[in-house]
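Suppose a colleague, Dr. K., hands you the sequence of a protein chain of 253 amino acids and asks what its three-dimensional shape might be. Before reaching for any lab equipment, you can write down a predicted structure in token form. Begin with the sequence itself:
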Amino acid sequence: MQRFSNPLLKHIIHRGYFDAASKRQCLQYLRALRTLQLNGFNTVFLGETDISESLITGEKVDKDASLRWPVWTLVHAGSSQGWVPWRYRLLLRGDLPIHQQNGIFQELCDSLTISYGKCVIVTRDKMQPMRVGATDGQEPETGTLPPVPPVIYMSSIKCCPEVARANGHELLLVPSSYKYLYPMDVAWSSLKWFIINNRKDFALRSIERTHSYRCILFSDLIVKGIENMTPSKWKVATNKVKRWENYYLDTFS
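The predicted structure, expressed as tokens, is then:
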């Protein structure tokens, strides 16, 4: 008789060596976030995702060949109201000069000031996967902002806390071990599933005597994929984040 593993085992959360430090970091992050929210800061989540050419075309390639294919990085931000009214960036990996990496975050801060006023911008730091925060066993003070590196590196842009503060915002790092506190993954999943299910509708084919060509309306596909993550879906995703925030605050306090 064939036996299958219990699907509940897929959701086991393994506790690591830094479990206690991770809890303190999460608690400090959540307390700082709540304090900023009570002081009138709007929460905005900033993130990025990679879009490979094979995802757009639907062609199946082996892993080694895929490394030579172009990859675009999409940078965008969202909140409980939906995507922020900002001109998102779709960047070819490795094709953006260093000085422009700083300018993109400045443009976002300017746009947020106009649209929302003061914001707390929550993002990830891909260059620093290890936890940053209280590790000395001391209980973090309520409302104390957790330590943030001078520069937060995403794959395509740099985010500077000083630039954020100069525009009236604050920049926070979501704890790396607590993915449920970061709704951008839900938004990227929505985008990529839309691409997979609808890319044929954005492809034009031209058949000539000796060759055939296929043209994919890449920009239109991305725009519609982003629109697929509607304000109502954002509301559901951020409400789920809030429930997890409340759970961790009650559990770790």
